[in-house]
Structures
1.
Amino acid sequence: MWLPDEVFRPLGSRRVRLDVAGTDDVVLRTVHDEVTAATHRFGGALVGGPDATTGDLALTLTSDAPADGFVVGRHDAVTNVRAGSPAGLLHGLHHVVRLGEAAFADDLDERRVVPVNGIRMLDHWDNVDVHPVMGQVERGYAGGSIFYADGRVRDDLSRVAAYARLLGSVGINAVSVNNVNVHRTEARLLTDGLPDVARLAALFRPHGIRVHLSVSFAAPMTVGGLPTSDPLDADVQAWWAARVADVYDAVPDFGGFVVKADSEGQPGPFAYGRDHADGANLLARALKPFGGTVFWRAFVYDHRQDWRDRSTDRARAAHDHFAPLDGRFDDNVVLQVKYGPMDFQTREPVSPVIAAMPHTRLAVELQVTQEYTGQQKHAVWLGPQWSEILRFRPWGEGGRTVADVAAGTGADDAPRAGLVAVSNVGDDDFWTGHPLAQANLYTFARLAWSPDADPGALLDEWIGLTFPGTDPVVGETLHRVLDDSWRTYEDYTAPLGVGFMVRPGHHYGPDVDGYEYTPWGTYHFADRDGIGVDRTRATGTGFTGQFPAPWRDVYEDVTTCPDELLLFFHHVPWSHVLHSGVSVAQHVYDTHGDGAARTVENAAAWDAIAGQVPADLHARVAERLAEQVRSAHEWRDQLRTYVFRHSGIPDATGRTVY
Amino acid sequence: MWLPDEVFRPLGSRRVRLDVAGTDDVVLRTVHDEVTAATHRFGGALVGGPDATTGDLALTLTSDAPADGFVVGRHDAVTNVRAGSPAGLLHGLHHVVRLGEAAFADDLDERRVVPVNGIRMLDHWDNVDVHPVMGQVERGYAGGSIFYADGRVRDDLSRVAAYARLLGSVGINAVSVNNVNVHRTEARLLTDGLPDVARLAALFRPHGIRVHLSVSFAAPMTVGGLPTSDPLDADVQAWWAARVADVYDAVPDFGGFVVKADSEGQPGPFAYGRDHADGANLLARALKPFGGTVFWRAFVYDHRQDWRDRSTDRARAAHDHFAPLDGRFDDNVVLQVKYGPMDFQTREPVSPVIAAMPHTRLAVELQVTQEYTGQQKHAVWLGPQWSEILRFRPWGEGGRTVADVAAGTGADDAPRAGLVAVSNVGDDDFWTGHPLAQANLYTFARLAWSPDADPGALLDEWIGLTFPGTDPVVGETLHRVLDDSWRTYEDYTAPLGVGFMVRPGHHYGPDVDGYEYTPWGTYHFADRDGIGVDRTRATGTGFTGQFPAPWRDVYEDVTTCPDELLLFFHHVPWSHVLHSGVSVAQHVYDTHGDGAARTVENAAAWDAIAGQVPADLHARVAERLAEQVRSAHEWRDQLRTYVFRHSGIPDATGRTVY
């Protein structure tokens, strides 16, 4: 992972003054320990006290600096970092680490660096007990859980400590430590498990990170033995209040709850004729006295749909459920909305919920773990996707961005929240299965801090912090392999925004009709004439109408709908000519060839730097790239064959269609 | 299950003379105990000794009767059963039970009743350890194993004892007690597990049934620690000889081994450049001194096929592998051949291997457990399918039947073997999940004894033995629900012999393209123009050439190929007109409507006899019939939609196609 010792050399070889006015704080201790370790290693020194020199770097805690960030500058041969909080100082320290020697070269104008988002959170879908189908980490592709083994919290939590340090270095300030699908054992983390939750919190706390728990809405019954979980029932309210008090006894800085309710079989308020605001506010009111937050997920849809029912559209579900509730949520509720209306697909439109709830704190949820994007067998760096989502303007040119909505910027009194993502780490030696998937974790954290950052620059930042001191060809190769990898993946998988087409259940590899006749609401309706989902107001499900102008009209019209989302919004003939100038059928033939070919180029580029990176790392990446090549060709050939069998349109270039 | 006390009333209310000349034998003790119990219950008596009367029924062990069967007749008010062996006498006793009062009415001409097949075997795919994917019983749909629980042989084997009695009553004489996919724990039944195998054998022995074990070809390495499992290696041969000696020390009447080798990932002789005859003979020679038999499965094919490779045809595989080995197998090897070339589909041609190995003992393998035929959620009685297979004449009119080949009848010096099937029982309260699936177990056993029996008569026999004393409407309803149920199932599932179209992995429910792009070799090649697999010699894979005349020519020609196998042998346009007079597309629309409608009729018929059978039984069957109705309509609608989307041909009758 990032932060090998070597990246501390510039700082560690210098004299560092830590001016924290005698404050005792666990985060300041982290700052102190990092500086001490670095200076010991690289020959610098920690200097301090009233008589000491100013040093080369001064880290100062001061109330005239921003509370959650820092001010950094350099003049008179001293680099100054001034922060208004211990966490701000930690972030300032790591800012200096990222700058490297540049932090100690020319003068730097003073610059204020604060996080755009107050919430910068990672959710872990880790189960305490290994789930018979979903395993230890649901949708995890990096081995077992770093938190749990053998049905309980691990005795040895050194991996968690290392992970917390890594997250703290890039500004993550919240984690949830158990799966949103809360099973029996995990439901008891809230009660019997509190001593263990406290152990986890103690490891995250020194890095400025608060721990959260996913809870079951049915816990009053399944854990508490009450006859109901009705949010309007006084006993239920009292039960949650008592549980929350217990939690804060054990973990005074506990962050709050994450809740998946009335979703994919999880219990929720619908059972009592209550709505999601009733449900969320129940928990919010219990947490309120302690400063805790409820993260209430908007991922609610009918997962037992009948494929024969063409009137139901899963894409509509979150907006249908939640938009009418705007203004009903307490101020310590954050509505956690997946970036798209379906489910973390490679390409979806931005969820219309994001533009529909101006009076609700709304966090955008991304997926760092690559459930639908290659499962850490494929090198797919998602920075460009996330950046595109965050920069999307739901109200068109000149309007606020998705990032603005999440952060509460760009409008007066807009409610503030932030970004949440599902983590991709496990107990794998390389943390993330595919070593290059570490770039996704890094990029998410940095975008959570600065949503408008250039993702390419963040990629290079990650490369520099992870592979310091290597031949420049290593960085160039990593950049080349990853930079366009999301679009490459899109090229060889489900085309033109139609989504899914993966093997049901595990979601790896192609199965074009795999979800076509299932209860999941994920259809493409391909036949001999065409493909795609008509979600227009004119003739389809009306989903386009959930967007504000201009998108409600841009998406509605097949002539203005962007190619990359065409099949999400329209059912068109195979012969339909795209803006790109080729037919839908030919587009599949072409892009799938191009995408598969690029995986071969990437594997060759990686081969060429053998010997320039550690052998075990090189071997692991090479093995994954080989699987990506195999899988990409499988995707290419299945999609081509499927399209040809349906459309009868031959490939204009005469390539083999099996 | 069959044999409730009531069926013993005719015999039990009479005087029974058991004349066994003082022979002490565990099977004779069973006969004695059955007669004693029945006469005690119903007021008859066991009479005997030199001074006793002849009684109403005389059961006599005598060397002038057939060794494996019996002679039965009635005159002078005495029913006489004379058998040449204890097992023959047991079968004679149950023959009398089946006859009921008719056994004691009019005179009966003396009749010789002997089993057509020497081998009448049930294989159990039970795992000792619950397999993470396949569960306790692989392809089992009736709960857990009756043999194993908690990772070992059960302490309480009373269900096994009851099962052995049931099997003995219908002439089964061999069982294998563990899955042909032999995992780590199960491989040690051969060594550490022998005391437990002996316990099982002791329960089957009193019913004339010998116990067999499935073994792993790699056992010399995985269990024995040898460096190889090469069948020509002297140490390997010695290892097997020693293991077999141990087994017979523990189980003197041990039956032998069942082996799945070089099949779906199981180890086999190919790893050493040896062939299946080398592999089978290795084990046969170890077993030979003790009278044991090797059941060597012919289910060998490439399960890692590339769907893009159109030159490989899984249907060809068993014949390609085994036909050249005819004459190479030792005389205590039985080649166990699935009835069709694919895998227990609802409709397949008969395997051409059956006609290709005149110098090999060949057992035909059927599947009582309903893997592809509704998984004991659907009422599908397979008697007519099995009967049709057994009566099929691979060499045409006047030639021997499949049953002849298995039994070694109809030709001079033909090698003798018999029938094997995969059992469908588990620890379910009703033994088979779907109570009506008991009819399959019964029918298989009776067909193994008499392959030319009329299956409808066997169905009525089962009804009479399982529901004695009920209102006639019960039997009529059961007969109506089951009699045509196999063809009904065929009607609403994969059409015209094309097979598969099931959900991958678990094989339940429709997924038309589920296996289309997989490594399993099970494709239908549907496109906008047509569907089916060209297996002709003229333009396809040449599979038709594996059959002798006339079938090689009947199947080759699309105009003579039977409708029900058309898509197995030919790729035809959706508009191709069948012998039945309708197009392939219309056939799907029609048969799927008819089949689904019949499931509704069956459920209604069953509803009408509520109160006439035990309530728990009625409820269980009703629940399964309701699921069958749901599933049949799902099949109907998916298949219709799939065909319409591909063909564009509308249903001539204008029914809804979704």
2.
Amino acid sequence: MAASDPTGGRPVDPSRGVLRPLGLAEARITAGFWADRQRVISEGSLDHARAWMDKVGWTGNFTIGAATGPAEHRGREFADSEVYKLIEAMSWETGRRADPARVREIDELVALVGGAQEGDGYLNTAYGRPGQAPRWSDLAWGHELYCAGHLIQAAVAHTRVHGPGPLLDVATKVADHVCATFGEDGSAGVCGHPEIEPALVELYRVTGQRRYLDQAALFVNRRGHQSLPQHQFGWSYFSDDIPVRAATVLRGHAVRALYLAAGVVDVAVETGDDELLRTVAAQFDRTLARRTYLTGGMGSRHMDEAFGDDFVLPSDRAYSESCAGVAAVLVAWRLLLATGEVRYADVIERILYNVVATAIEDDGRAFFYAHTLHQRTPTRSLPDDEEQLGFGGGPRAPWFEVSCCLPNVSRLLASLSTYLAAADDEGLRVLQYADATIDTRLADGRHVAVELTTAYPADGNVTIRVTATDGGEWPLTLRVPAWAEGATVTVDGVTSPASAPAVTVRRAFAVGDEIRLHLPVAPRFTAPDRRIDAVRGCVAVERGPVVYCAESPMDEPVGDLDRLRVDESRTPVDGADGVTVWAGFAASSDAGWPYDRPDGATEDPDLTPIRLLPYHRWARRGPATMRVWLPTVPSPRRRSTDG
Amino acid sequence: MAASDPTGGRPVDPSRGVLRPLGLAEARITAGFWADRQRVISEGSLDHARAWMDKVGWTGNFTIGAATGPAEHRGREFADSEVYKLIEAMSWETGRRADPARVREIDELVALVGGAQEGDGYLNTAYGRPGQAPRWSDLAWGHELYCAGHLIQAAVAHTRVHGPGPLLDVATKVADHVCATFGEDGSAGVCGHPEIEPALVELYRVTGQRRYLDQAALFVNRRGHQSLPQHQFGWSYFSDDIPVRAATVLRGHAVRALYLAAGVVDVAVETGDDELLRTVAAQFDRTLARRTYLTGGMGSRHMDEAFGDDFVLPSDRAYSESCAGVAAVLVAWRLLLATGEVRYADVIERILYNVVATAIEDDGRAFFYAHTLHQRTPTRSLPDDEEQLGFGGGPRAPWFEVSCCLPNVSRLLASLSTYLAAADDEGLRVLQYADATIDTRLADGRHVAVELTTAYPADGNVTIRVTATDGGEWPLTLRVPAWAEGATVTVDGVTSPASAPAVTVRRAFAVGDEIRLHLPVAPRFTAPDRRIDAVRGCVAVERGPVVYCAESPMDEPVGDLDRLRVDESRTPVDGADGVTVWAGFAASSDAGWPYDRPDGATEDPDLTPIRLLPYHRWARRGPATMRVWLPTVPSPRRRSTDG
């Protein structure tokens, strides 16, 4: 394969697949929900992250040993990777919106990073210097290949926005060093934290150098043979328990498993290995069916940041790391491009509205690391100048000792417009709904453009106006989410049913033609698979793609959410500032031992309207308790403790 | 206070309280459920633990630097404490049953330990030598005071069985060194892991030296002021978040919190601080009401081995460490002695039958560290010569990198007979039921003895025969467990109702008199407090003090326990080899996304008799899945995924 368009502005750019992704120049978000969040990243998060990385010494690490540099490495062993993710985010951001000052900042950061590269291409500020551990001495925990992967991804992003430059030179030297060290004739190791795999494939896509793809395939095939040391968390933590081709589900550390899955899709696509593609798709599908929260969040264990067993999805202490949300989008997007299965866009939408949108504070200067679905004790008030050591629990924090999530969410949001649509063999597919413009060439080279106007997700009506076409026939496909029962599409005054996963309008469009998609977003109850013990006897409320929650801020308490009981027989309705359900608070006493004979009676609290708010809006009104899953009435009553 | 009887053989020997504990010579278990387990410890666990401690170098650590000793410390920083707990277990065991060979083994171990003591009394094999961290350089994680505490407890046990000897000398030197280092004029620190607190009070009780009590009180009062370093787990991990007197519930690392609570009771009792006693009792009571599993197990979080928030009690991934069970018995026993509230004996019984009895393999040579209540994937087969690095998940393992649980359970079981009964102001209280003899003096000095005969807990009939008395009147009090509805007591052919927590028979007993207690142990359903989300819509089955479970061994599968549904309307009944419930398996399919609109239908699987077995018997038939809490039918059905 020849190198793909080096400046296409596409986060992922496979050489084959059912869908062809669009670049930043081809898809733009112009207003609305996501434009607001892109602005928060642009005006808040990028500077905030940079300031903290300077403050805690992560940028300074690149000048260790220099005259003005620090004497010792600061931060965790993977701190370099956060700087790289920030450069990646800034690169997409400068492709999204011209910003010469930011471009100069990137250039300065690139110079800083490049200055730390060794003559043989090695680049990591935590290893190999006097007093540091030797290079590659701790593949399981050292994160060296992981950091190299994020450096490569930053270079790929920068190249796809600004063309080849110094960062690509740095990254190719790193990649060549990796290939020399870990190639067929080198060390047979893998990194404890996958990331180098998708990065090397993207570098192959940018440079056309087959050796990077081969090295990525080597890493994929080497994993799963328990070559990493035994550990308390087991080999599954590293996805090193069984070979990728033998696994049936994602397991272990969620971000690691998902980054690996992204790399596996990339390797499968570029090497034409359809069996491998089917295998990783089946793993992801089973993960969605059995190991994913309603929000699309993944990872249910705090200790090892890991997937639980099938159906182990506790609401309280849900881990659902922001980075796992980002990583799951990366996997779903790759599978969507490779297979054309629009249902993967449903997954992306769910994660975006319920994990990604939840992660970031309104000013972009604080963020969630983990995303509980049930906050039993009120969130705390955190000082805005204090680094947090723990990752779980609310509220959003300005910085964590491990601050992967903010730059990770930033790189996704800065490039978000490219997830809106894709081209297929004949036409255009609109995959996400926002005020946006899409302007591209179809597979046969024809220029087409559409403009999307909508108040989505508040409202389910989307108007798609054709703004460029050559008058010939082409198909316009619109995703219909699985939840959108009763959806319709209106063309030329004719309204037709539109059922999931998509509706296609094929005609000789004229400029000015309007297609109107109606997606019913009325609030609805959702029940869990009965095998999910943690939320048995509960319902959740969703409205369109948005998961809702009950929140009880300390300033304006709603009540003891542990005792909230919702009437499942009365449909939730839209209210002035949220969704209303009918619910009450079950009686309870503290009679001591909390287990007793059942008495068969039912609870019947007085029911009143209770307002729910979008889950992504929680923890924005000061300390609060919160729950997504709402126990229903009636339910069996214990004999003595209650009533 | 003068020193108490130094050879009374009592694990806890308070100078005041409503009840006076009995010693090993006064209460003996002669046959039955617990006699079997004491034999397993005696014939299996003690030698097994000793062999492993030799193999992994923990005993060898005491000869570091000696001519034939190892060059470096092996094992975790608290490995010394396991040797001490083993010496304590062996000491009780030699009080329970004469065993000259074991006595010699103890003497050898004591000589080994004593040989490592420094001239100033300091004794810890992991600190202070060349190449090791300095003494007291890491109070948070170093476990030095914790190890000193277990050494003191071993010396107290040995002294109470065999009288003062070399180990007591070693321990008092250690304690004096601790007092000199951490006294009023010394370092104001506390240990990250409590244990020194109850140990110093017991040493005070043995020696009469007030300085040990004062030092324990100092440690108790110092804790809770965030003097330990900030950590990812928070100060609550060390119970160092708020002062003991301000806390309302146990929190953080469960074993740490419980050992501290034991020490707090001891300090409160010996200093006459009734307010402190009420405070710690209230903390424990609230912990029982909101943070304790049905089994009596405590600790619901793997990451920090910690209590969860109120009502966060997941069945799968329950932590419920064996050591937390032992520690909770120590707290409950102290509160029972101090307050005379018999309900604490209910707690002890629950923990004994469902945590302690579950912990140990039938041959005593493997054990659980954590106790899940729901095993979703089959337990593994473990080699019997391999140390396990992880603590959670089944099955019982021969050894763990952290092997606190086996010696801890051993020291409790070896001294278990002393928990059977206690003396009150006037008479005798029988607190646990087993084939046993109790032979003691009442408060007024009269000699009384009774013999208990029972098949408990298989059968709920207990005969108490008076075997010694002086013919005068005295009250015999028998505990009636809270679950024992319909209990009766029969004296002289007259049967009367006996209600919880206890029934008292007061008369001028004659030798040969028999009192018959009848505790209905018929199987029963138990429902959880509705605020425990993890088991909403489920019931458990208990029979007497024993919690039951459904187990599906791979060799003889019962079915997919994730789909098991029990008919709550049909009372469970005793069967030939277990308890039978009527249950079926709900239909389910894997349609993909596991959340969908509720459809209001109910599930009605075909119901057949399903056998349950005692939870303490699980994981003894090879790899298996298991669950304690059983979802009930009917329950609301989701629309599309099921059926």
3.
Amino acid sequence: MTSESKTVGQYTEKELIERIASIIGKPKRRDILIGIGDDTAVVKGSGDSKLLYTSDMLVEEIHFDRSLISPRTLGRRAMAVNLSDLAAMGAEPQYALVSLALQSSYPMAELEELYAGMVEMGNRFKVTIIGGNLSSTGSQMVIDLFLVGCTSGRIFTRSGAKVGDDIYVTGTLGGAHAGWLALEAYGNRAEKTYAELVKMHQEPIPRIKVSRLLADTDIVTSMTDISDGLSTDLTHICSASHVGANILWSQLPIHDLVHDFENMTGADTRLVVLDGGEDYELLFTARPGSAKALAEIARRARVPITAIGRIVPRNSGIRLVEGEKSSPIEAKGWSHFGAGNR
Amino acid sequence: MTSESKTVGQYTEKELIERIASIIGKPKRRDILIGIGDDTAVVKGSGDSKLLYTSDMLVEEIHFDRSLISPRTLGRRAMAVNLSDLAAMGAEPQYALVSLALQSSYPMAELEELYAGMVEMGNRFKVTIIGGNLSSTGSQMVIDLFLVGCTSGRIFTRSGAKVGDDIYVTGTLGGAHAGWLALEAYGNRAEKTYAELVKMHQEPIPRIKVSRLLADTDIVTSMTDISDGLSTDLTHICSASHVGANILWSQLPIHDLVHDFENMTGADTRLVVLDGGEDYELLFTARPGSAKALAEIARRARVPITAIGRIVPRNSGIRLVEGEKSSPIEAKGWSHFGAGNR
């Protein structure tokens, strides 16, 4: 079948991005350091400085359910997930533009709360909303944020991992997805029983501080944030770096409540942790022998940093090691279109 | 009634923007030269340079009808209307990010054409697409573009018009709205009978060249682009500059085909020209005595520049002068929400 008769739902997100990149062609401007395909775009500023641009869209019913999240929390979340992309590159956030499509029946009080939430999360990381636009829509609400960041130091990309590098993750894993499953299953009642998990889903904390500390060192060889799930985001790094990876199941910093959640609901912790996504933690590779320096950075940023595996040659593939056994890890995390999970 | 029980549809766009600006508060960062409320945001770059950021969202069924516009033309249009915002500020366009929400049933071939159209219009003005994101949606398609521009020279704002300044407009007026009315009334058949008008609506040409030439002079005192309609966009300038305006009906550069369109369809040329919008021409004020210099710029840019009136004191209001008569001009152009037309 040619593209003539196919729909976008028949392509993986990676295939769609590759197709789009080929239409755009190789950048002609020399000032474009990183174009389509990483967490943010990067262009040359004056001197050593670099400017970073990213956008992330939240669509009602796809990314959020207005009956399950308050407008203020939604505002905080929209800002946080965009900030996470800047954290993944090691940049300092600066400005945001907010594009909103709203039904004209949308309550004014909710609009005010939504902005208050974005401002709140923005202020926490010194980001100012400087523009945007409002549009009406006949259907689902859309929130699209554009963020601008800068750095005069190192930037992290997905493509620098080398065989022998250690693989690290910040914070804990699985909490956000368990929270989402709880909301799906129990609706607003989940906020009582699974309050902490729900909060981890709805209000991720972008790892700006630890990222900026890491950018001051030469430890990190590649980085991304865990938005689509460990399996998918690790695949992004391995694919961009042309390497494989071994992940040690026993080392994964699974949130305690995720185990409790499994006990209570029967949810599969393995799927939650590997494929769940939306933890917005940083996943990165580091030169061998960086453990001590990373422990110090973890202490200063007050965020755990855990070694979870090692980069191996590409032909060894991406594998999950559990005791004596090992099994392939496939990118089964979040994908926007139907074909994403194959 | 307090905002507690009101919907966004009960506010004008201006009121919504003012409310949002008050939630965001005064920018704390000194590097923000222009925040919310003009055609683009402007921040300080290094040295004399300034960086400009703007975004504009097109929502299916609100801004376009997929049965009446080809995906390639839609791509060109999406890029052009964003470029027009940079033209209105006098900036040089540099980069674009594209956020798309699509149903998974959207044909891949149309996605390719949509990008090809954006790339085509971008190349014409040396803009490269460097990023963005794709999302699925259960309903209407959304295209949100974020543009980055720069300048080391003058920037134009809406707020510098002075009493006695002349008011100018580039190109012609009314063609785009007449084209839209033709499409509304006759669907695809309009493309035959009213081909030129339809093209003016679907494929506006951003006035980057004339804007950059004007930025090299000290002639211009305020500027915006005509996106919402002459009446609304002139009101934006007058309101930001605390002045009034007299517009001479006999001087307006109404496109010839608009008169023909009136003869054939009975459409009210006055409404089309004053309130229609989407011409994406530049509307600006200039120091008295600039006519000769402007004629030279018009010649170099190959775009007509026409004097259409004069800035007067605020208490004289904004008026349309027709021979001996004059009548108030009210902002009756495009507004996204219901209350816009009051």
